[in-house]
Structure formats: C-alpha cells, structure tokens
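Hello again,

I reread your note about wanting to compare the complex against the isolated chains. To keep things tidy I'm splitting this into two emails, and this first one only covers the full assembly. Below are the input lines as submitted, including protein chains and any nucleic acid or small-molecule components. They are followed by the predicted structure of everything together. The single-chain runs will come separately.
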Amino acid sequence: MTPLAQLIEAALFSASRPLTVEELTTLDPDAGHADVRTALDLLKEHYDFAPHGVELVELAGGYQILTRPAFAEAIERANFTPRAPRLTAAALETLAIIAYRQPVGRAEIEEIRGVSAGGVLRALQERSLIEVVGRGEALGRPLLYGTTPSFLELLGMNDLADLPRADELTIALRPHPAVSTGPDDATAYVPAES
Amino acid sequence: MTAADVQVSGPGRDTTMALGGTPGFVVQLEQFSGPLDLLLHLLREQRIDIADIPIARIADQFLHSIGQLGLNQAADYLDMASRLVRLKAQLLLPRHGDEEGWEDPRAELVRRLLEYQQIKEIALWLGKQAERRSLQYDRGYLPPPPALPEPPLTLDLADLMVAVERVLAGILTPVLHSVVARPLDVEGATLRIEVLLQERSEITFRDAVGPNPTIVDLLSTLLALLELAKRGLLRVAQDQPFAPMVIRRDAPGPTD
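Full-complex prediction:
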C-alpha cells in the first residue's frame, strides 16, 4: 500500500458517508484524480486479496468502506448499532415515482398512487431521501421534489442510471383469455379502432 | 398474492356471493397502499384482463371491500369508488351500434392501472436494493450532540446581563433617519398675503410665496390661500389652464 492509499483508507474510515474522488484529491495537494483512482484500486485489492471483514464499495458516486454482506446476520443479531427502519410500501412507491419523474410535484405523485402523499413526502424529506429541487410553473407554483445522494446510498446505487430502464420492466398484467362474462358484461368491450 | 393472504369473513362472504358471485376477495385494507393497489388485487385474484375490466362487478366488489374503512383512509378510496360507479353508469348507457369515435370510458382507468403497476414493480426493485444494501454496515458514526449546560440552568443576574450584552453587541446599529419637524406656517403665510393685499389689489401666487420658497412655504401659502378664499376674503383665479394664479382682494380693503 502506498502512502496515498493509506491516507485514503484513513479518510474513508473516518467518514460516515461515501467520499468522491473529487473530495479525496483534497487530502493531498500533490495527488491528482488519476493518483487517487490508482490508490483506490490498490485499497480495493488490499481488502479483497487476503479477504478482510470490510470491503471498498462504490456508492452514490463515491467510495465507502462497508462490512461484507456475509457478516450481516451476525452483526444484526449482536445489535451493536441501531438500524434505520425499513421503508414502507407507500414510501417505496413514492420514491419510485420521484426517482423516475424528478423534478415532480405532489399532485402528480398523488395522481399516480391514487392516495394523498403529504405524510409520506414529509417522512422521506426527514430521512433526507428526497429534497425540494424547485417550483413548478403550474397554478400555485407547487414544490418539486427530487432524490438526494442519501437515496442512492440507502439503495446501494452509484448513480440514478442504475435504476432499471422502462423497457426492462414488465409493465402490464400478463394477458390471458378473459375469464368471466357475467351479467354485467352485457355491454361488451369495443376497442376504439373497430 | 396467494389465496392464503385473503381473509374471508362470515358476513362479508355472504355479501360477496350476492354481489359478484365470486368469493375470496374480502380483504384487509391495511395490506394495500391505496385504491389502485386494491383494484389490482381484485383483478389479479379473479384473473381479469386489465384491458377488459367488468366494471359493474369490480365496482361492487370495491365498494364492498372498503365498507369497513376507517375515516382517515376513506377519502382516497371513496374517490376511486365514485369513479368506478360513474364508469359503471357510463357503460350502462345504450350505444347506437359501433359508432366511429366511441371511446371506451375505461381507457383512463386502464392507463392509470398500468402506470401504477409499473410504479409498484419499481418499488419492489427498490425494496430489494435497500434490502441488499442493508446487509452492509458502514461505520455508523454519529456526531455527538452539542454540549448543553447542566440542567437545571443555573444563572445569576450578572451572567444574564453579560449574555444580554453579548446579544446586543451582535445587533448591527440600525440605520436611523432623523426626521426634522418642519411644521407648516399657515398663520405666517396668511399674514403675508393679507399684508400684500393691503398694498395691492392683485398679486400672483409667486408674490404670495415670497422669494426662494421651500416646499414648506409653498404648502403653507397654498393652505393659507384656500383658507382665505373659503372665508371669502380673496378670489383665486386662472385666466386659462396652467396660467399664473392671480389672487385678488374680494372684500374692500381699508386702502380702497
């Protein structure tokens, strides 16, 4: 390990969040981006070669030292550190809408989910997963929300581009022959084209 | 959603059979994140094609499902229920043949359901991601809370005065405008005009104001003129608009 790799290791150890290459270059006035990247590769190799309990992970556009997943169960059982509460279905759905449509206003979120969104939005803001990124042009200049780096961090993503693309999703219910034609089907479905 | 997730209750079941003829959709609403979720569940349970929803039946089942709703949840579900009932009514209206341009009133609902389904799929993916991420711990370092004085707060008057001084010292000196009182001298102006009119029967406004007038002089003179005119002691006239103001004695003066 080079002195720069050691310095970076120390910095990553001291930080409680992912640090970007940009931030890491400020550690040493003589270190450029390329030097930092080389040192990061070295550090990663160091953890992986003779396996350590921690590893270097790329997260939210930066780097962070995290424990290996294999030890999660034991650590959880020992209960040394409190864990953030899990996200509810409502929170995940709201995050999904914001992640894909940002900047997006509350009205659109409520329209898509069919439920009022005020409480969920507040909770997500309190957990710093979303933030107000601007105001819309619509009546009343509504607040527009976007995701934060903490959102990427919480979901183990490096970038919003890590989200599944629309064409990778199975959108509709799988089509199958219509099951029932009860009495209420008297007015049969007529496609607009016919 | 498997059949095991669906709770069938006694009285609910009877209504179910009566309404839709399909048992097994009596559900606990807490497991749904909204009316669209509940609708999707109903469709999935009965293996109904999302593009061809038997609205009347689904509307009845939906209304039945929300029967036991608490008031706080009710609004969102009632909104959907009213839409379904309206759709049901629209579909019951007779159509004359297969007219051109007839749009299936269900199209909007289908669009919303598909959109919501996509969001649910993404939400599921996000949930799995969060689950995977939660297997890796970070340092978990939290900065210590700021040091606070020991409760109960012990302060004496001197401490308090020092604190107040410190706060006051931090306040920037406000920019103050000193307002100089310049009261109008209507009496003086009245006197001046009366003296002038003793000497001449006709003066101009400029004469009345005097040399190098300030704004206060102008105002005082104007008010004095108006007051004197009201009392009928003089007449104020202009030969034409914007012409110089001419002030004439109205009542015969002592010199006349």
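For quick reference: The two ends of chain A are 72 Å apart (CA to CA).

B.
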